[in-house]
């Protein structure tokens, strides 16, 4: 029996949210872990705008308070500074588990904590979902496919992942999390939703995030060299954040039989050199391109097959690369013209 080790006995429930105003029955109380991060802050904003109560749990390792500062205007928003590696009990209807550093330099800075977040953190949240009867959503990743030998990537492809390279803490951590989600579904009947996210960009990425789109834009705006890793012929498919978050909410609301994994991403595929040229063109920058060594195990190619998302969710991205870049450039332009303090809070 799952409840043999009943957490309710050992884990005092937090009262967070109990002072929310009474909500209509069609609205939910939703936990977003990693809610102060890039994707999480957009998700919190969308859910609050739809009238839901949102509890954001974040350890602020890569997330920023400034990302959620404007959400304080909602009296249905709460923030708890907490690491998901420690258990937590909250009265919630739905859980979106986004907590995990996503940028290679960030997740590689403390690989053991990254793995712990993926595995122990997921276990804690699955326990919570089982205890509260909450539906739970996992932010998985295209990194599940590693350096893929099947192109474009379909959900049925098992991937090509190095178990102990520099990216493994993240790739294998996220793979293990998918296993845990499926086993909680099978063993305890927990309602799960797994999304495999392909490279997503947009406003509220940190200027020092380290991922390619924010790096190139910040470098271009500052007139610094644009750092292409390797010969720049490796490909990625870039999805604008608003499209992705729309897909999250559709998947969460889908019939319970659709557990996922479901790929979400923009199938438009570009080489990293093409991205650099596009950013230089759109910023009007005079930055020059320099080459840096290609990181170990850097995937050669990546593009999602989104047939499942299109058929099951009626979802497809609507923002193309040049429009998404224009909006992201506008964001960084505003940010970089402010003070450094404002940037990093
Ligand atoms: P991000 O680094 O901006 O956000 C991650 C958030 O999680 C941050 O607020 C961070 O402080 C928080 N966090 C990290 N470890 C935590 C822990 N142990 N306990 C509590 N909070 C913790 O990254 P993002 O791009 O917003 O990514 C969000 C999620 O989506 C991640 O799970 C990531 O793996 C996944 N994802 C993102 C992309 C993408 O392109 N953005 C692609 C694939 C998967
Ligand atoms: N990349 C690059 N310059 C940078 C940052 C990244 O050329 O300043 C490359 C990176 O090596 C990879 C691609 O861009 O080939 C996408 O990298 P990112 O870290 O954004 O995402 P991921 O590798 O996780 O897909």
Describe this structure in words.
Keywords: Cytoplasm, Decarboxylase, Lyase, NAD. It is found in: Cytoplasm. GO terms for molecular function: NAD+ binding; UDP-glucuronate decarboxylase activity. InterPro entries: Epimerase_deHydtase (IPR001509), NAD(P)-bd_dom_sf (IPR036291), UXS-like (IPR044516). The strands form four sheets. Strands 3-2-1-4-5-6-11 form a seven-stranded parallel β-sheet, sandwiched between helices. With 345 residues, it is α/β, with parallel strands linked by helices. Strand 2, helix 3 and strand 3 form a beta-alpha-beta unit. The protein is built from twelve helices and 13 strands. It is 38% helix and 16% strand. The structure holds nicotinamide-adenine-dinucleotide (NAD) and uridine-5'-diphosphate (UDP). The site of uridine-5'-diphosphate (UDP) has 13 residues, from helix 7 and strand 8. Nicotinamide-adenine-dinucleotide binds next to helix 2, helix 5 and strand 5.
């Amino acid at each position: 029996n799952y409840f043999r080790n009943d957490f309710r006995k050992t884990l005092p429930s937090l009262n967070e949210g109990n002072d929310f105003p009474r909500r209509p029955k069609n609205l939910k109380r939703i936990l977003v872990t990693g809610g102060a991060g890039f994707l999480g802050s957009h998700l919190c904003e969308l859910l609050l705008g739809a009238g839901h109560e949102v509890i954001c749990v974040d350890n602020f390792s890569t997330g920023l308070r400034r990302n959620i500062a404007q959400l304080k205007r909602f009296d249905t928003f709460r923030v708890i500074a907490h690491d998901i590696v420690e258990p937590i009990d909250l009265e919630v209807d739905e859980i979106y588990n986004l907590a995990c550093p996503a940028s290679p330099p960030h997740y590689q800075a403390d690989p053991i904590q990254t793995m712990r977040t993926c595995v122990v953190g997921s276990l804690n949240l699955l326990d919570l979902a089982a205890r509260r009867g909450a539906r739970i959503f996992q932010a998985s990743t295209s990194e599940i496919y590693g350096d893929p030998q099947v192109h474009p990537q379909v959900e049925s492809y098992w991937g090509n992942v190095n178990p102990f390279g520099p990216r493994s803490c993240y790739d294998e951590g996220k793979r293990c999390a998918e296993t845990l989600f499926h086993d909680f579904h099978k063993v305890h009947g927990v309602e799960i939703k797994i999304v495999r996210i392909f490279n997503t960009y947009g406003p509220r990425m940190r200027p020092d995030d380290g991922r390619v789109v924010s790096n190139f834009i910040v470098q271009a705006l500052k007139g610094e060299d644009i750092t292409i890793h390797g010969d720049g012929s490796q490909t990625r498919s870039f999805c604008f954040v608003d499209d992705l978050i729309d897909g999250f909410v559709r998947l969460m609301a889908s019939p319970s039989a659709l557990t996922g994994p479901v790929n979400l991403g923009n199938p438009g595929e570009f080489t990293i050199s093409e991205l650099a040229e596009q950013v230089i063109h759109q910023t009007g920058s005079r930055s020059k391109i320099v080459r840096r060594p290609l990181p170990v195990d850097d995937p050669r190619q990546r593009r999602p097959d989104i047939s499942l998302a299109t058929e099951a969710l009626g979802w497809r991205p609507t923002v193309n690369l040049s429009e998404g870049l224009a909006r992201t450039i506008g964001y960084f332009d505003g940010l970089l013209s402010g003070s450094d303090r404002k940037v990093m809070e």
